[in-house]
Amino acid sequence: MANTFSNIGKIPELRRRIFFTLAMLAVYRVGVFITIPGVNRVEMASVVTKGGTGSFLGMFNMFAGGALERMSLFALGIMPYVSASIVIQLLTVVVPKLDQLNKEGEQGRRKINQYTRYGTILLAAIQGYFIAQYCESLSKGGAEVVVGGGGLSFELMTIISLTTGTAFIMWLGEQITERGIGNGSSMIIFAGIVTDMPDALVRLFSGGGSSDTGSLSIIFLVLLIIGTIAAICYFERAHRRIPVQYTKRQVGRKMYQGAQSYLPLKINVSGVIPPIFASSLLMFPVQIANMSGSGWLQEFASVLHPADWRYNAIYTTLVVFFAYFYTAVVFNPVDVADNLKKSGGFIPGIRPGKNTAQYIEKVLNRITFAGALYLAVVCMIPALLRKYMQVPFAFGGTGLLIVVGVALDTVQQIESHLITRNYEGFAGPKGPRIRGRATARAR
Q1: Which of 55, 127, 357, 391 places its Cα 20 to 30 Å from the Cα of 434?
Q2: Which residue in 356, 352, 329 sits closest to 341, CA to CA?
Q3: pTM for the full model?
Q4: Which residues fall within 8 angstroms of residue 144, CB to CB, at 6 or more apart?
Q5: 261 — phi, psi (to 5°)?
């Protein structure tokens, strides 16, 4: 392992990418502490932490990396960009013009990315307006005076500040994706969750249960955290191997025997995308409902509270849906079958072409169901523990899944750079290779 880290420093490109990623994440963390003018950050932190990690504000604050409780420029985080990406991807399926752009290659994808940026600005402006209204309502009707002086000037300042902060985070994420290591949006969410873990540890060990069973509860939670991490690592690397046989080839006068290989299909092709998409899709309407003064919207917000069974049911359904949806986006069985046919490969017992595509799609649907079920179970752990054990378990579910999944993807990308340049990976020369989602897509 020590040799592996020393090898990282020997590759200039990899070293630059890692340093660039760390620098961009450092800039993001600095921006988290810049408070919007006119807001009392101490009182705002009291409002956010009062509900605990199980509340809507606590979950929103987790994804924003603690920026909401400081009411900083980055209070909205990267979630408006994620929400806009979801909307554009869904519209790509139903709008022929967007579907045509998506098939036009790099030029079309740039146009779609531009639409996503416009959508991000629009969503950030809407959310910024409701956050400004919410802060003013707290100062009028609550004990906490979050805003010293409200009015139109404060609302405009808040909307401009939050929209600008979201646009800057979006730019940081795109720069990390292009010039750094890993997916930029996921890395930003990862950084925000990791920085909140020390506080979550304090809350865990100070509120692990009652005075009689507190120690047993903490031991159980520690074991559950370890077991959850082990399960995430296992399922993120698990895949189904479909055997592939290649026909004999004649090169000149020599006849070469057909090689045997396999097609690896990951159980969880979508990775951490489904829980991120599901959380983002639910956060936007719930935020609008929570921070508005409308009575029926407040009632709607109470239904979609993270501790409510209806919220958990909708969230689980969305996780399963996005697991299938994103898998269909990144993996096309017809293209895989065509590539196998062109290269002289076939699956034993399956006719090349259409039958191969149908067989791959059938296997993929089955293993995607197992992957979606695994995601749903992991994401429901905190809700179940908070409901039946009354403990502030902040390490399971979406947060822990994102942290472990993004870490595995980042390590896999670093290992790919090392192996490409004939260096040993993290697992050593004889150890198993760490396979991320990019490996499955490439195959």
Answers
A1: 357
A2: 352
A3: 0.78
A4: 40, 43, 44, 46, 47, 138
A5: -140, -165
